Amino acid sequence: AQKVTQAQTEISVVEKEDVTLDCVYETRDTTYYLFWYKQPPSGELVFLIRRNSFDEQNEISGRYSWNFQKSTSSFNFTITASQVVDSAVYFCALSEGMDSSYKLIFGSGTRLLVRP
Amino acid sequence: NAGVTQTPKFRILKIGQSMTLQCTQDMNHNYMYWYRQDPGMGLKLIYYSVGAGITDKGEVPNGYNVSRSTTEDFPLRLELAAPSQTSVYFCASSYSQGRGEQFFGPGTRLTVL
């Protein structure tokens, strides 16, 4: 069965610290897609990244980086030199290749608090 | 482009009342979705549509209905509201090719008392 687990419910760091948000997924499909979304206090959902199962290359975008490891079914997200504006709930999500609806299966989210 | 718009932003219902949550997208996306987000939880799929005239149930469809008469609009109907339907409701849309990201609306916060 498909599942996304974000074991860290809440993380609190001081500004400029690095922080890693963990995401572990379960799927029987060999083709699948992984996503990260950010939900700031205002409540909207902001897309951060999409990665397909055939591309294990890590990605860096400014202070954000993602580590995709199929061997451990993980897709972790690191924020370098965190800032107060990074405070939000972050969701990892999975879309299975055999699912023609393209629906997203969300983890329960990790709330990140960055203190000044 | 306005993207995905939802109305209303907030609503309080009494038990047993009905209402329709509106969702419109102007990106010509075929795929549209309704999710609900309960406090401290991730989003769960209520209904989805892969094109005008085609809808299907998601993970938590009970107590809801949808229709898709046009590409742009995907309203969600709550019949006989119950306290368990207190949640934040998000509408989303996506392209049908390439498994791209879903674009989300701003959400509707619904309270049933």
| Poorly predicted sequence stretches spanning 5 or more consecutive residues of chain A | none
Record field, number of beta strands of chain A: 12
What is the structural class of chain B? Answer: mainly beta
How many β-strands of chain B, per DSSP? 11
Largest sheet of chain A: 6 strands, mixed
- The helicity of chain B comes to under 10%
> Helical percent range of chain A?
under 10%
Structure classification of chain A: mainly beta
Helix count of chain B? 0
Please tell me how large the radius of gyration of chain B is.
13 Å
Give the number of helices of chain A: 0
In sequence order, what are the helices and strands of chain B, one letter per element?
Answer: EEEEEEEEEEE
Task: Report the sheet-strand fraction of chain A.
Answer: over 45%
| Tertiary shape of chain B | globular
Which sequence of SSEs, written as H and E, runs from N to C of chain A?
EEEEEEEEEEEE
Query: Largest interface, per-chain counts?
Result: A-B, 25 and 26 residues
Main sheet properties of chain B? 7 strands, mixed
